[in-house]
Amino acid sequence: MNRRDFITLLGGAATAWPLAARAQQSDRMRRIGVLASLAENDPVAQAQVAALVRGLRDLGWIEGRNIRIEFRGITGGGIDHIRAAVAELVASNPDVVHSSTTQIVQELKRQTRTIPIVFANIGDPVDTGIVASLAQPGGNATGFQNVEPAIGGKWLELLKEVAPDVSRVLVMANWGNDANQSILRVIEASAPSFGVHLTSVAVRDAAEIESAIEAVAREPNAGLIVIAGLPINDRRKLIFALAARYRLPAVYTFRYFTIDGGLMSYGPDELDTYRRSAAYVGRILKGEKPSDLPVQTPVQYQLVINVNAAKVIGLIIPPALLARADEVIE
Known about the structure:
There is one protein chain. It is elongated, with a radius of gyration of 20 Å. Helix 7 (about 180-190) links the parallel strand 6 and strand 7. The chain has a seven-stranded mixed beta sheet, sandwiched between helices. It has two domains: about 5-145 and about 270-300, 3-Layer(aba) Sandwich (Rossmann fold), CATH 3.40.50; about 150-270 and about 300-330, Response regulator (Rossmann fold). Helix 6 packs across helix 7 and helix 8 (about 205-215) packs parallel to helix 9. By secondary structure, it is of the alpha/beta class. It is built from 13 helices and twelve strands. It starts with a helix and ends with a strand. It has helices spanning about 5-10, 20-25, 45-60, 80-90, 100-110, 150-160, 180-190, 205-215, 235-245, 255-260, 270-285, 305-310, 320-325; strands at about 30-35, 65-75, 95-100, 115-120, 140-145, 170-175, 195-200, 220-225, 250, 265-270, 300-305, 325-330.
C-alpha cells in the first residue's frame, strides 16, 4: 500500500461527510506534508496519522476532496536521515508541514522559513530555539509540546515505586535532541533523594542500545528510564527484549511503548495530541499565521502499566500503583 492509498483509506470514502464540511470545501486542493519519526509501516506512525486525519475530517478537511496528505517516515536516528527526509519534503513545497520530535522540527526550521510548521509531541520548544515563546511563537512554527522537564523526576519516582530496590538507573535517549538535556538535568537533581546512582547514555543505533543495557545489567538492582525519540522509537522492541532478558524494570514516555511490551509509561496521550493539532493545521490553511498561534502544553498525563511485562521479569506491581493507573494491560 503506498502513501496516498494509506491516507485515503484512513479518510474513508466521502459518502457521509457532513454538510458543514462541504460548505468549508476549498476550490483549491491543499497539500499537507506529514513527516513521522517512525517508519511509514510502523503501526504507531499509522495510528498517529490516522488521529490527525480524523481531526482534520471533523473540521471539514477531507482527503481527496480539499486536502492531499503526503506521508513520509524516518527510520534511524542519524542526522543525515533527518536532513534528507526534510529536504525531500521541503522541496515538494506543501501548504503546511506536520511533524514531531525536536530534531526533525529543528531541521525543518533550518531548511525553510516560509512553509508553516505544526508540531506535535516535541520537548521544550523555547529552550531548543524552535519558538520565541509559548504565547507568541514567532517565525513559521507552532504546535503542541509533549512533556515538560519536570516529568523526569516523576519517571524516577515511578521507577522506585514499582521496584523499590532499584539503586542504579540508566537513562537512555538521543542526547542530540536538545530537549532531552533539560529532562536529564531534572532526573540528575532528583536522583540523590531516591538513593539512586544515575548513568546517562547517548544511543544512535541498535548496537549502542544493546551495549548500554548490557553494561548496566552487570550490576545488581538496575533499572531503565527510556526517553522517546529517534532512534529509540523504532528500536523499542529490542529494548523490551533486553529488559526482559536481564529482568530490568523500566519506565517509558508514551502509552504505545507499554502496549507494545514495555513495563510502564507515563506521559501525555500522544494520539489525542495529534488529533488536537489538526485544529492548527486547519487554521493555517484558512490563512492564520503560526506566529499568532500559541504553543499548547499537555492537557493530561496517563499512567499505563503492563502486568504481563512485570510477570516476565518477576516483578509484582504494588496494588496502590495499579489503582492509580489510567490503564492496566493484563
